[in-house]
Design goal:
Strand order of the largest sheet: 1-2-3-4-6-7-8-9
Number of helices: 3
Protein name: Outer membrane protein beta-barrel domain-containing protein
Radius of gyration: 17 Å
Signal peptide: 1-24
Largest sheet: 8 strands, antiparallel, barrel
Helix content: 10-25%
Shape: elongated
CATH topology: Porin
Strand content: over 45%
Organism: Devosia salina
Keywords: Signal
Distance between the termini: 38 Å
Order of helices and strands: HEHEEEEEHEEE
Length: 201
């Protein structure tokens, strides 16, 4: 419990360090490019590694499910690129139930259009804290003999919106946490294949 509290405190400090300089240079959003967003998403965890999660033919789904919500604030933009902050909370439902919190930087590229359809790739990177391991993550943690309470967070995503309602986006995202090739721990923690809905304002 003490280790988890320290991990949450560390994540909070990282978030403050990210937010403080960003707010010094935030420019107001516009109707064409809102600078804030709220989103909800969820989906099953997989027993494979991250390299398997990005290949649909290699998905091996667990009975465990991730459900979460998050907030984004974009403070920098250049042409079609936006850079911002993201923070979120989630629950990994299974045996046992595990809570997750994450925060980091998010970059998105609003450049691809097919008629009235807009396709926006993005990626979020930061830190993730959990209250307990779940599924394949538990097995890997035991094998490595290391803690997975705090790991790196990585979330590649593709979002789709329509010109008639650009404030709404549907998206697919991989919810990934790992030790970063041993820089925190020698663990490929967990990977969830998720779908979600975002409202930009």
């Amino acid at each position: 419990m003490f280790a988890c509290t320290r991990a949450l405190a560390a994540l909070g400090m990282v978030g403050l360090c990210l937010v403080a300089p960003a707010y010094a240079q935030i420019a107001p959003g516009t109707a064409e490019r809102p600078d804030e967003a709220l989103f909800v998403f969820g989906g099953p965890l997989t027993s494979g590694n991250f390299s398997d999660a990005i290949q649909p033919g290699r998905w091996d789904l667990e009975s465990n499910v991730f459900v979460g919500a998050g907030y984004q604030h974009f403070f920098y933009s250049y042409e079609s690129f936006q850079l911002g902050l993201e923070a979120g909370l989630g629950v990994r439902v299974g045996t046992p139930v595990s809570a997750e919190a994450w925060a980091g930087l998010v970059g998105r590229l609003s450049e691809f259009e097919i008629g009235p359809i807009n396709i926006t790739p993005s990626i979020t990177g930061g830190l993730s804290v959990v209250t307990d391991t779940i599924g394949a993550e538990t097995t890997r943690t035991a094998a490595a003999g290391e803690s997975a309470a705090i790991l790196y967070y990585l979330a590649p995503e593709i979002a789709v919106s329509h010109d008639d309602h650009p404030e709404w986006e549907a998206f697919g995202r991989i919810q990934h946490r790992s030790g970063g090739f041993g820089t925190i721990a020698h663990i490929d923690g967990s990977n969830a294949l998720t779908l979600g809905l975002r409202y930009k304002f």
